[in-house]
Automatic annotation (TrEMBL):
Pfam families: Ribonuc_red_lgC, Ribonuc_red_lgN, TSCPD. It catalyses: a 2'-deoxyribonucleoside 5'-diphosphate + [thioredoxin]-disulfide + H2O = a ribonucleoside 5'-diphosphate + [thioredoxin]-dithiol. The keyword Transport does not apply. InterPro entries: RdRp_reductase_class-2, RNR_lg_C, RNR_lsu_N, RNR_NrdJ/NrdZ, RNR_R1-su_N, TSCPD_dom. The lineage of its organism: Bacteria, Candidatus Methylomirabilota, Candidatus Methylomirabilia, Candidatus Methylomirabilales, Candidatus Methylomirabilaceae. Residues 117-440, 444-589 form the Ribonucleotide reductase large subunit C-terminal domain. Its cofactor is adenosylcob(III)alamin. Residues 1-31, 608-635 are annotated as: Disordered. One of its GO terms (biological process) is deoxyribonucleotide biosynthetic process. PANTHER family: RIBONUCLEOSIDE-DIPHOSPHATE REDUCTASE, VITAMIN B12-DEPENDENT RIBONUCLEOTIDE REDUCTASE. Keywords: Cobalamin, Cobalt, Deoxyribonucleotide synthesis, Disulfide bond, DNA synthesis, Nucleotide-binding, Oxidoreductase. This is Vitamin B12-dependent ribonucleotide reductase. The keyword Heme does not apply. It comes from Candidatus Methylomirabilis lanthanidiphila.
Length: 807
């Protein structure tokens, strides 16, 4: 529940530490912090030592405000004037109207030597020295709290001759794996793993290998994107071939059919969520590259919204749009009149000043980065709480009105942001490359870029709002932690329900079970229409919203096009093409539950089948179900034939939809089991694979028990195992992933529900019943808190329960 941090949760330094003392004690204003925000702040942001937490959330805001306001002294501000600036910074942070990116809040004012930016791009030169210099620099950046983007497009293709050694080049994908392994070894700032973006031009000879490189699940610390050129996109539109070019020799090495490459991209994205696409020529022709005379942009930061030249970085921050809703204005009044534009302008101007000041006090980790940042002075002011604002205004996310309003609000922020930067230039001078930039004929401006829609990961949890410009992921969800049943309902929905008179505890429970209100009896149709969730929105509507904000943003827009599990590759292809047609700079899709294997058969009606290998084997040589193996065979695990046949069952579990494949031997008995749930490379996927392997081993070991008897014993061991969450009622109740697999195996061998109940009773396990506390899947299993509320949005994993974020 929202409320101030109590003295029981923190002890000491309300002023944020010794570094703030120069400007005196903090202002009296306090913030409102939810349980989730306090948990996130305690774990990752507040000053602490071996005895505990030494800082309140207000102390953190003052620590950061003072540390950044120190830059004001360089421009002739007195201590009193610097305190005024610090107070304005403090006020917008403690009120939840603006927060900078996480490294700023984690590190500013702590005197720990760690830098304040989130986004970096490092060059990867085509030499062994250059490659491993980039690895080293990436490790330094990850250790200090940043994420890195790399273009591997300069590296010569695989198997080309290296004259200096007479050997063959390893190719960009082999080095991508090196970077991935290095990232795994570095814990980012003690708080999170380093995030990376890997980009390869579509005309690189190794592009097909790059497109497929994540299918085996081995590259877990990278998002990847294909840099699509205008030449490629035109060839795609005309269904023509395009040339592949060796980056080392600049010679054409071959041609590919654009349509086939695009289909390969789409298939890989359907299965794993990667690669995304960045329209690299469009980026270089847009305000995202304000100095095209001096540099060519090759890569972006990890979530794709911040194109950067080599060794450049950007300071990011986000305005919480939900805080500018005017509840006192009647709902009949136009939406634009229910927004506090005056206060929004004040906060935007203060935020631009804040982000510009960050550049001057930021202890960048490398000298090359310090110099490059100083020449360009990029900042990226974005938004969060967009979905919440729409909910307050009663506007459906997937409506023309929402798209129009989004473009209007972002246009306002961009216009005011640029004006604020131009006013700073009057006092401080423009960024050093201004005279060579796209702005050289206009008013001098302090920052080469001003706006970016960045992921808001944990900072949106801290201020209690929706992420970036994403729609809400669920209206409500429920956790079961021990004996506690915790229901989390969107507070705006709860308020609407009470105001409109349809609120009840029973309705809130039903909403939490479903996660959605679509088609839910008792919820008015107009409310159902407004409270639409990410997976209920058509992909085209996601793309249109991204495009609306992109039109008014200097840099890029972090937006995940969320798709239901049932989405087809054609749906992804249409989304990619629409993003190009609507002038987006790039696009990322994520199909719910996407994984690296496709379903073979769905249903339970398949008849026992005989494998090709067993058909070729004489019937007399096969063991009967109860025959004892020979002494020699007792020591052997039965080998797997080249082909076997079986059926695949779909099962809903607390960790998501599972697909359990049961393959059979020549006698129609269970021979092996494969279980798949969650995205390839996730912890959930690893656990499900491990369970399947162990069951398969048991079934293939020599034993006097028949395969059916062995399956009964497996069901006996797995059925009824409970986890933190469960779902369903009565005979449909599923307590955990192992329990779901047990139910599938019981169904496969025809073991009735009473038979399973008898097994559970014999073990002393509570029988499956219609007990309350069912829960629906919201996301994957969080590696921090273990709850299944880890969702993928803004190109990043984020937990709605504990605030864990990879970005």
């Amino acid at each position: 529940m929202p409320g101030k941090a109590s003295e029981s949760t923190v002890h000491g330094l309300d002023n944020g530490g010794a570094t703030t003392q120069a400007l005196g004690s903090r202002p009296a204003k306090n913030g409102q912090w939810s349980e989730s925000s306090l948990r996130v702040l305690r774990e990752r942001y507040l000053v602490r030592d071996g005895t505990g937490i030494l800082e309140t959330p207000e102390g953190m805001c003052w620590r950061v405000a003072v540390a950044i306001a120190k830059a004001e002294a360089q421009w002739g501000k007195t201590e009193a004037e610097a305190r005024q600036v610090a107070e304005s910074f403090y006020e917008m942070m403690v009120e939840g109207k603006f927060l900078p990116n996480s490294p700023t809040m984690m590190n500013a004012g702590k005197d720990n030597g760690l830098q304040y930016s989130a986004c970096f791009v490092l060059p990867v030169e085509d030499s062994m020295e250059g490659i491993f210099e980039a690895v080293k620099r990436a490790a330094i950046i990850h250790q200090s709290g940043g994420g890195t983007g790399f273009a591997f497009s300069r590296l010569r293709p695989k198997d080309t001759l290296v004259k200096s050694t007479s050997g063959k080049a390893s190719g960009p994908i082999s080095f991508l794996r090196v970077f991935n392994a290095a990232t795994e070894a570095v814990k980012q700032g003690g708080t999170r793993r380093g995030a990376n973006m890997g980009i390869l031009r579509v005309d690189h000879p190794d592009i097909l290998e790059f497109i497929d490189c994540k299918l085996d699940g081995g590259i877990t610390n990278f998002n990847i994107s294909v840099a699509a050129t205008e030449t490629f996109m035109h060839a795609l539109e005309k269904d023509e071939e395009y040339a592949l070019i060796d980056p080392h020799t600049k010679l054409v090495t071959g041609h590919l059919q654009a349509r086939e490459v695009f289909q390969r991209i789409v298939q890989a994205a359907w299965r794993t969520g990667d690669p995304g696409m960045v329209f690299i020529d469009r980026i270089n022709a847009s305000p995202a590259n304000p100095i095209p005379q001096d540099e060519v942009i090759e890569a972006t930061n990890p979530c794709g919204e911040q194109p950067l030249g080599p060794n450049d970085a950007c300071n990011l921050g986000s305005v919480n749009l939900a805080r500018f809703y005017l509840p006192s204005i009647p709902a009949e009044v136009r939406a634009t009149e229910r927004i506090d534009w005056v206060e929004l302008e004040r906060v935007v101007r203060a935020a631009v000043r804040f982000l510009d000041d960050v550049i001057d006090v930021n202890p960048y980790p490398l000298q090359d980065i310090t110099e490059e940042v100083g020449k360009n002075r990029r900042i990226g002011l974005g938004v969060m709480g967009w979905a919440d604002l729409l909910l307050e205004l009663g506007i459906p996310y997937d409506s023309d009105e929402a798209v129009t309003l989004g473009e209007e609000i972002m246009g306002f922020i961009r216009r005011i942001g640029h004006d604020a930067s131009e006013k700073l230039a009057e006092a401080r001078g423009p960024f050093p490359r201004w005279s060579r930039s796209i702005y050289k004929g206009e008013r001098p401006i302090r920052n080469s870029t001003v706006t970016t829609i960045a992921p808001t990961g944990t900072i949106s949890i801290i201020v209690g709002c929706s992420s970036g410009i994403e729609p809400i992921f669920a209206v409500a969800f429920r956790h079961i932690v021990g004996d506690r049943h915790l229901t989390f309902v969107n507070p705006i929905f709860e308020d609407v329900a009470k105001r409109r008179g349809f609120y009840s505890e029973e309705l809130m429970r039903r909403v939490a079970e479903r996660g959605s209100v679509h088609g839910l009896e008792g919820v008015p149709e107009d409310v159902q229409r407004v409270f639409v969730t990410a997976h209920e929105i058509e992909p085209a509507s996601h793309v249109r919203m991204q495009s609306a904000f992109q039109k008014q943003t200097d840099n890029g827009v972090s937006k995940t096009i969320n798709l239901p599990n049932s989405a087809t590759p054609e749906d992804i292809a249409r989304a990619y093409m629409l993003a190009y047609e609507l002038d987006c700079l790039g696009i990322t899709v994520f199909r719910d539950g996407c994984k690296d294997t496709q379903v073979l058969h769905i249903g339970t009606g398949a008849q026992p089948a005989v494998s090709e290998a067993e058909e070729a084997e004489p019937a007399t040589s096969r063991l009967t179900p109860h025959a004892l193996p020979s002494p020699e065979d007792r020591l052997k695990v039965k080998p797997r034939p080249r082909t076997v046949k079986g059926v695949t069952y779909r099962a809903e579990t607390p960790l998501g939809t599972a697909f359990v494949t049961v393959n059979q031997n020549g006698e129609g008995e269970p021979f092996e089991v494969f279980a798949s749930v969650g995205k390839a490379g996730s912890d959930t996927s690893a656990v499900s694979e491990a369970i399947g392997r162990l069951i398969s081993l048991v079934l293939r070991l020599p034993s006097p028990m028949s395969p059916r008897e062995r399956v009964e014993q497996i069901v006996n061991q797995l059925a009824g195992i409970g986890g933190r969450r469960q779902m369903g009622f009565g005979k449909d109740r599923v307590r955990s992933l192992p329990d779901a697999i047990a139910q599938v195996l019981a169904e496969h061998i025809g073991l009735s529900e009473p038979g399973v109940q008898e097994m559970l009773a014999a073990r002393g396990t509570p029988a499956l019943s219609g007990a309350e506390g069912a829960s629906v899947k919201v996301g994957d299993m969080c590696p921090d808190c273990g709850l299944a509320t880890l969702v993928y949005e803004e190109g990043c994993q984020k937990c709605y329960s504990c605030g864990f974020s990879e970005c």
